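#structure-requests
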Amino acid sequence: MQEKKTAVIAIGGNFLSDGKSTTEEQMNRAYKAAELIKLMVNKDFNVVVVHGNGPQVGMTYLRQLSGQKEGLPPINLALCNALTQAEIGTMLELAIINTLNRERPGFDVLTLVSQVEVKADDPAFKNPTKPIGPFMTKQEAEEMKKLFPQWTIIEDSGRGYRRVVPSPTPIKVFSSSSIGDTFKTANVIIAGGGGGIPVVRNPKDNTFELVDGVIDKDRTAFLIAEEIKATHFFLLTGVPHVCIHFGKPEQKPLFDVTVAMAKKYLAEGHFPPGSMGPKIESSVKFAETTGGTAIITNTDNIAEALEEKEGTRIHL
């Protein structure tokens, strides 16, 4: 009997919310994601969903700060990751169950709230690059900077201004080795949401503590894909395929890309560290360690990407 295919699908937080979306709007987007999962399930895949949380975690942290007006102490960014993991996981799980149960009664989905180990001396803590929260105009960014002078706010790819926070590299996803066994009882697993809750190890007694930062979900998705020996790795973004010279007159689409080519383009600085860069890096690692093909595309074109009619495919 042929072993069932396993796909790890990384869905961006921006797909689920722009940072100011209502619960109803976010649920509608979750149902769109569920249709994508349904497509994969109907093609006989086990599926692991790893979602981002950049817009959501930024808004959650702002809510914590606004609560200070009522004398409520804010929680740290690490726990904001935990809140948004559970929040987004709940919406996705419900949408997937409702979408698939119409045809497959009793279809099971499991959401795991994942802690992820990072290194305490990761240079990212001194060089924040991960955009979180909503986009701001230049005036809004200047006003926010006056309120929170310790924040780093940058212009984000011509789309507006956003706060950026440390994005340490994940080195271990807690309990990821159990995901393969979990497929015995669930067909879809949501794990590593928002890149996971970052923790650092104390080497003296082998304990862990929370640390502020937002891990890039594409890097966490790769670790999970590697651990469970996924056959397919999809990194979903806002465009149907990757381009070099993005947004410039000489913009060029990329469809079939070798690992060597991808590394060359990375070295030339075509892919920003807070957005497309981690997707390319994770795709390269997946191709190198598994011999498989990573596919970068958007949700509207995943069916075409499976048939190699759209999307950027990165392989050896």
